[in-house]
From TrEMBL:
Keywords: Amino-acid transport, ATP-binding, Nucleotide-binding, Transport. Belongs to the ABC transporter superfamily. Residues 4-243 form the ABC transporter domain. It comes from Loigolactobacillus rennini DSM 20253. PROSITE patterns: ABC_TRANSPORTER_2. GO terms for biological process: amino acid transport. The keyword Transport applies. Gene3D superfamilies: P-loop containing nucleotide triphosphate hydrolases. This is ABC transporter domain-containing protein. SUPFAM superfamilies: P-loop containing nucleoside triphosphate hydrolases (SSF52540). The keyword Nucleus does not apply.
């Protein structure tokens, strides 16, 4: 049974003369425990597709099942609960709350969900251990580096032990060292905790950490590649596919590959 089942999904934005078809009939499945990347040229529909899969946005037509639940027409309150309990999100701009300490930011999803103090502290200790955040707990987001912020954002995303983690350009604001650290953490979470990861990225080095990559062009699935050999050879496959698909695969500071 797939954890994510996307069935002929379309997303059209705008009205009348200004219609933009961002996703044009995508069907895909993601299995429990996969680490899947979504790549493609700028404007191809990657973020829209991720937002649809992660219930942030709703499709114009088609259906989406998460963990065998049809989330397409789920009411907002039920969807918010489902999101809180089952999903984690990492965004490029971190979305940390500046007025809260690192500790408060990390436990926010548990506080909102009404967990007990004991349960919150247990979960916090585990996350702090995995992500090496101990020395940062009493600091504020404005007083830590972008890489540290991203680790906190990652911690906040996984503290609820979500089945599914969605990440949109998670390394986009990071230098190559911080990007590599974050990608290693994602790999650990994926391998050890069995968290399924779906990640949008422009960056071939970042993508090389995935096991499978879906390439999107003009709102449709263009190609798929699966990692079989080393990460380095997969990196090369990604670069080749970016050249084939055209339209602006870019490499950024995170791309100096440290294989
Ligand atoms: N809220 C919106 N309203 C109108 N058009 C939108 C909206 N969001 C996205 N689009 C359009 O849908 C298309 C796909 O956008 P999307 O952001 O999903 O692409 P992307 O592949 O993630 O691009 P990028 O790599 O540049 O972030 C684009 O033409 C975009 O302008």
């Amino acid at each position: 049974m797939p954890l994510i089942d996307v069935q002929d999904v379309h997303k059209v934005y705008g009205h009348r003369a200004n219609l933009v078809t961002a996703v044009a009939g995508v069907s895909l499945q993601v299995l429990q425990g996969e680490f899947v990347g979504i790549m493609g040229p700028s404007g191809a529909g990657k973020t829209t597709l991720l937002n649809l899969m992660s219930t942030i946005d709703r499709p114009t037509s088609g259906q989406i099942f998460l963990n065998q639940k049809n989330v397409t027409y789920m009411k907002n309150a039920a969807l918010a609960k489902f999101r809180r309990e089952q999903l984690g999100f990492i965004f490029q701009d971190f979305n940390l709350l500046a007025a809260l300490t690192v500790r408060e930011n990390l436990v926010l999803p548990l506080t909102l969900a009404g967990y007990s103090v004991v349960a919150i502290n247990q979960a916090l200790q585990k996350i702090v251990g995995i992500l090496g955040l101990n020395s940062l707990l009493n600091r504020y987001p404005d007083d830590i580096s972008p890489g540290q912020k991203q680790r906190v954002a990652c911690g906040r995303a996984i503290i609820t032990q979500p089945h599914l983690l969605f990440a949109d350009e998670p390394t986009g604001s990071l230098d190559s060292k911080a990007a590599t650290e974050l990608l290693r953490y994602l790999t650990i979470i994926n391998a050890k905790a069995g968290t399924t990861v779906v990640m949008v990225t422009h960056d071939a080095f970042t993508a090389s950490y995935c096991r499978r990559i879906l390439f999107i062009k003009d709102g449709q699935l263009f190609a798929e590649i699966v990692r079989q050999g080393s990460r380095q050879s997969f990196f090369q496959q990604v670069i080749d596919m970016q050249a084939t698909i055209g339209g602006g695969g870019r490499t950024n500071g995170a791309s100096a590959p440290g294989f």
